[in-house]
Amino acid sequence: QVQLVESGGGLVQAGGSLRLSCAASGRTFSRNAMGWFRQAPGKERDFVASIGWNGGSTYYADSAKGRFTISRDNAKNTLYLQMNSLKPEDTAVYYCGASDYAGTYSHGSFYKYWGQGTQVTVSS
Asked: What residue ranges in 1-124 does DSSP mark as E strands?
């Protein structure tokens, strides 16, 4: 059974940093794209960042460029999201997704597996 488990969320002041992790189990995703999405209350799930199978290609939403960094450790089957200069509008539940494909994808339909989410709250 495939599982994705996010961790690292919490409450942080504006301007602070958090590092999210997503540990995968049940199968390896070393040849697959992975990504981060987020969903704020009352809003749809939005794309944040994606990374190709070997980490060589990354793609960010405009809101994440220059502040967030996506990375992966295939040996640990783990995905990361380093978030710096956090803003109150970054407050959301953050989800990791894993694809059966190898590229970088901003649309949720390319991701087959999802974690349960981790809450990030940024206070002003």
From this structure: 3-7, 10-13, 18-25, 34-39, 46-51, 58-60, 68-73, 78-83, 92-99, 111-114, 118-123
pLDDT-derived band of residue 58, with 50, 70 and 90 as boundaries? very high
Nearest to 22 by CA among 88, 98, 93: 98
Q: Which residues of 80-107 are buried (b: 16+ CB within 10 A; e: fewer)?
A: bbebeebeeebbbbbbbbbbeeeebbee
Q: In one letter, which amino acid is 77?
A: N
83-112 per-position pLDDT tens digit: 999 999 999 999 999 999 988 999 999 999
Residue 3 CB contacts under 8 Å (≥ 6 apart), including other chains: 24, 25, 26, 115
Would the pLDDT of 54 be above 90? no
Single-letter amino acid code for the residue at 9: G
